[in-house]
Amino acid sequence: MKLIAGNWKMFKGPRETREFCDRFHPPEGVEAVLCPPDVSLATAVESGFTIFAQNVHWAADGAYTGEISAPMLLELGVDGAIVGHSERRQYFGETDEMVARRTVTALEAGLRVIACVGESLEERQSGQMAVVLRVQVEAVKDAVGDHERLVLAYEPVWAIGTGQNATPDQAREAHAFIKGLLDVPVLYGGSVKLENAEELLSEDGVDGALVGGASLDVESFTAICRTAANL
Ligand code: PEP
Predict the structure, then answer these.
(1) Which residue, by CA, sits nearest to atom 3 of ligand 1?
(2) Which of 42, 55, 97, 212 has its CA 20 to 30 A from that of 11?
(3) Taking a C-beta distance cutoff of 8 angstroms, is the pair 65, 76 a contact?
(4) Which atom from ligand 1 is nearest to the alpha carbon of 82?
(5) 3-class DSSP state for residue 200?
(6) In angstroms, rounded to a whole number, what is the distance separating the alpha carbons of residues 45 and 26?
(7) Measured between alpha carbons, how far is 143 from 31 in angstroms, rounded to an integer?
(8) What is the mean pLDDT of residues 57-66?
(9) Which atom of ligand 1 is found nearest the CA of 165?
(10) 145 C-alpha to ligand 1 centroid (Å)
(11) Which pTM does this prediction carry?
């Protein structure tokens, strides 16, 4: 069964979250996950859907202003968390070490984790893609191995929010490389929309999708889930 996760980023407060959840009816045959911003997690949990946070801290509690811990998420009824999203790496200085620490703590606490990896355009164009992916994947692998609650997301930075998705060949190649390093399910993320979902999700080694922009609209996200369910 494919896993289709909607990363809402910094969109949708509790009111819009409730509206979305009331209208969201994912089909059978796909695992749909919603990843709202922290203020909307409680509202989303009430809906009964599988809910992931967009980040999680490595400490159980402490003087970490603005952060949220795994035990807090579990208390709320949240199922998992994304870690290492490229926007966290790019704008908030997340390093591979921080991503690994977040992953370990979240898994040990009982959460599921989607750990994101992916190369920038410069890295791809200068032939560094394999090196970058290896370093990012091995940081997680060395910390937790092929944990049963761990999923990776291949999210080429140049494809996120740009409308320029990886081609199915590029996705297949990257997923095969990643799975050769760490044998866990790998989602594709980067400008997934209804128009390209079928060809990307049909590729070998593409176990689902992490969807940003196209997950904000309930009809478009439902249609992507339906595409995945019908494969
Ligand atoms: C994301 O935020 O993880 C993402 C893949 O965004 P988009 O689908 O908008 O490219």
Answers:
(1) 212
(2) 97
(3) no
(4) 3
(5) helix
(6) 16
(7) 26
(8) 96
(9) 10
(10) 26
(11) 0.97
Q: Is 155 a catalytic residue?
A: yes
Q: Whose CA is nearest to atom 1 of ligand 1?
A: 212
Nearest Cα neighbor of 214 from 155, 161, 164 is 161
Residue 34 phi/psi, 5° resolution?
A: -110, 135
CA dihedral sign, ordered 158, 159, 165, 171: positive
Chain centre to alpha carbon of residue 214: 14
What would you measure as the largest C-alpha separation in the chain, in angstroms? 47
Q: Please write the tens of the pLDDT for every residue from 104-163.
A: 999 999 999 999 999 999 999 999 999 999 999 999 999 999 999 999 999 999 999 899
The helices-and-strands tally (H runs, E runs) of the chain is 10, 8
CA 209, CA 202: separation in Å to the nearest integer? 11
**Ligand 1 centroid to residue 61 C-alpha, Å:** 30
Quick one: residue 190, left, alpha or beta (phi over 0 = left, psi -120 to 50 = alpha)?
left
Closest of 70, 66, 65 to residue 53, by C-alpha? 70
CA 83 to CA 143: how far, in whole Å? 14
Residues whose CB falls within 8 Å of the CB of residue 143, separated by 6 or more in sequence, listed in order: 100, 101, 103, 104
Cβ contacts of 111 within 8 Å, gap of 6 or more = 56, 70, 73, 74, 78, 79, 80, 81, 149
Q: Which of 3, 4, 7 to mutate to test the pocket of ligand 1 (most atoms within 8 A of CB)?
A: 7
